[in-house]
Amino acid sequence: MNPTTTIAVRAARAAGRVISRYSERLDAIKIETKKRNDFVSEVDRAAEREIISTIRAAFPDHAIIAEESGVHKGNDYQWIIDPLDGTTNYLHGFPQYAVSIALRFRGELTVAVVYDPSRDELFHASKGEGAYLDDRRIRVTQKKGLEGALLGTGIPFRDLTHADAYFGMMRDLIVDTAGVRRPGSAALDFAYVAAGRLDGFWELGLAPWDFAAGALLVKEAGGMVTDIAGGERYLESGNVLAGGPHLHHFLVDRVKPYLNENLTF
Ligand code: IPD
Ligand code: CA
Ligand code: CA
After folding, report:
1. Which CDD domains does UniProt cross-reference here (predicted)?
2. How far is the CA of 64 from the centre of ligand 3 (A)?
3. Which residues contact 90 (CB under 8 A, 6 or more apart)?
């Protein structure tokens, strides 16, 4: 593991310890509502502080964008942090949530860590060095079509602007595959595509911190990540498709009929 990835792992594990500690007394956690169905708790903030202080100690000049504290200016290296992806699950005691940390250098993702503290599973990747679950190399599946495929997704629940298009995509993909799962943490959904637990994934309206790390994991595991129209602007658009190299274009084909002037990528 390269030294930068080692720091990201240290930060993710430190955040994971905070998250696990609070999970023993969920009832006592203080929660605020950012907007409808968008919650932030003292756990999100405490985990984020832990990550930022670990990164800052090692790389004081790097820039950071973190979900809860926003932009911290710095040089051309930018860390993209979601301290707790799957907050709604977490607050319900539903064990599907993760810490997500990515590093981008001049627009290119170079380091990815997604850590699931409830299962103690650590997914990590460094550009050009492959993707790993703990110390085991992981790869996307080689499925050649939608038949028999298991997909992950995120169902819109805050912003319903594209709900009709989304449910059209979902209906078509349910009919054509072995099933669609909505686990509730986009970071882990991508990690599961990277590990071959899911054959593909799509979601509309994600933020960069939800899946920057996940996107590099999938790519380093041999998969493809694009925006909803099959292009490269996935981090900007947040409308995203991921899958194995032989499956991905079938996902693009299935969602294409639902693109419109407001939902192009
Ligand atoms: C959410 C999760 C969820 C996705 C949402 C995200 P959060 O992140 O990734 O799976 O559907 O769009 O906002 O708010 O729990 O960090
Ligand atoms: Ca998130
Ligand atoms: Ca979050």
Report:
1. IMPase
2. 15
3. 19, 23, 41, 43, 84, 97
Compute, in angstroms, the gap from residue 67 CA to the centroid of ligand 2.
8
Stretch among 109-113, 129-133, 158-162, 245-249 having the lowest mean pLDDT: 158-162
Best probe residue, ligand 1, of 80, 210, 240 (max atoms within 8 Å of C-beta): 210
- Single out the residue in 136, 169, 204 at which a domain terminates: 136
pLDDT at 159: 84
Domain span at residue 164 reads 150-264
User: Given ligand 1 and candidates 91, 116, 206, which is best to mutate, with the most ligand atoms within 8 Å of its CB?
Assistant: 206
User: What is the pLDDT, as a whole number, of residue 151?
Assistant: 98
SS3 category, 43: helix
Task: Tell me the mean pLDDT in the region 166-185.
Answer: 97
Of 82, 106, 136, the last residue of a domain is 136
Residue 143 lies in a domain: no
- Asked if residue 221 and residue 131 are part of one domain, the reply reads no
Q: Say if ligand 1 is within 6 A of residue 184 CB.
A: yes
How many Å lie between the centroid of ligand 1 and the Cα of residue 188? 10
Nearest CA to ligand 1 atom 11: 154
CA pair distance 145, 197, nearest whole angstrom:
16
CATH number of domain containing 156: 3.40.190.80
Query: pTM for this one?
Result: 0.97
111 band by pLDDT with thresholds 50, 70 and 90: very high
